[in-house]
Request: fold
Amino acid sequence: MRRVLLMAGLLVAATGVARAADPGADTDRVERGRYLARAADCAACHTSEGGTPYAGGHPIETPFGTVYGTNITPDDDYGIGDYSADDFHRALTEGELPDGTQLYPAMPYTDYHGISRADSDALYAYFMSLDPVHQQSTQTDLAWPFSMRWTLNAWNWLFAPDDSDDSDESTADRGRYLVDTLGHCGACHTPRNAFGAVESDHRLEGAVIGGYEAPALTPDALAGRGWTASDLTRFLRDGRSPQGSMYSEMYPVFHHSTRYLREDDLSAMTHALLGDDPPEPTPLAAKSSTTDGQGAQLYLDNCAGCHGSDGRGVARVASAMPGNTTLRLDSPRNLVKVIHEGIEARSFGTFERVQAMPGFADDMDADQIAALATWLRQRWGGHDDTVDTAAVEDIIGASSD
Amino acid sequence: MSERDRIPSTPLHVTINGRRQPVEDVPNELMMLDYLHEYRNLTGTRYGCGIGLCRACTVIVDHEDGTSEERRTCITGAHFFEGKSIRTVEGHAERDEDGEIASLSEVQQQFLEHFSFQCSYCAPGFVNAATVLVERLQREPVAREALEDTISDALEDHLCRCTGYVRYYRAVRDAVLATPGTIKEG
Reply:
């Protein structure tokens, strides 16, 4: 009997050794977690500019105050070092920490709610494989009453999804999983109600966030701005396409996330966005627009040096104007913001860095920006309307005079 | 009808280095750099990258209130300068009655003494930027301890591929220190 027990003990020990000695399974899971972390764009909030990856500190401005991304490296004091896989899954998909603290919904746990347990475990394995960073996260600073975390229980009861979608990759719509759950595109592109909850019945219909418009991504809206499936896939993969380049808050999404995605996943996302039967892209209306007047001369004086007097731009330097997605948007908001503030220098891929576009806040008043925006939208955006000065002032803030 | 007449053009009124320029029709889409080179024969302003990055094409725009600013002429249309007064690298030195150079500006002299440039391609932009800085500090002096950072902030966008910037930096510092009223006392 004793020998049998001993044998059993040896067998168990041998199994344990065998499991620990099989590096393939763990490495695969960690790598899968790394990929999922990119698809879920965790770095966007949990990595501060110039900071150690996932050590927290990135400020997220919300209408209710500033929330800071936390340290999610496996540090016992300041990170998630003492989390179990269950704890991690609950924080990720329910927004609840091991001690019962409710996370603010700046953490998109309502989107992540549908993350499968297998994917959650892979993410957990990846984050636990990182070097712990002993760095305290900046404390979140919200105004009362939002500073009272207990109110979040009521928020969750009202707005958080309650049906756990145990995603089965073999049958689930991979694209929708990438767009809605991991990619949480709706966190910016779906409008939010007065309580900061996404309006799920207006999925991806566009919203204004941080002063910029996160454009509508419905099939009709995308086709209306001339997007095809191949251009959209290219845009996500390269950060650029014939319709323009990524800037503002979309650029970090490309930089941290979409450029790492596999081609089949990018195609799946595009498919999810444009639908099974993508609408025909709307051609740019042929215009016999003016080449003189204030708007035209402002363009020649300030923009044509890089974008060209014919608007064709310079490959890999300055975007082409005809059919540019920012010009085709119904609202002039993003165009006005870009003219006013410029665009920061960006890198696209390993070997390319594009210099900054200057902003013209000091050079053009609201009248001039309105004239320039009107001319650009009519010439190359397919619009007939005019952008009035009051609208520009509203967008750039009345303080600019 | 000449080729130029077929291009949409508008009369341009501009003052360069203190002189009102002859008014003539200038193509609406001409960049200022080309105007300086082709219409005024002022070739000291350099064409570098052509996309507003290197700053070799920088000139000075003088405002009526006595302030001045840099402007990149490779990406700015000639007509942006309608009614404005600018200085180019040709306008800094004192000249005698025959138009020959009599003395250099403080910035130019310091650049020579420090051997600041080698190939000189970026030098016109640096001369103009450093001059804008010195003139600003005369209006708004800084503490001595803040001078290094002030110089870096003012000139860091200008590219030089020969000298490593150290000699430019020392020359600008000395030009500032040699100019009265640029440093706050105490």
Q: What stands out?
A: Chain A has three domains: 23-134, 175-274, 294-396. Chain A is about 45% helix and 5% strand. Chain A touches chain B through 16 residues (CB under 8 Å). The longest strand of chain A covers residues 59-62.
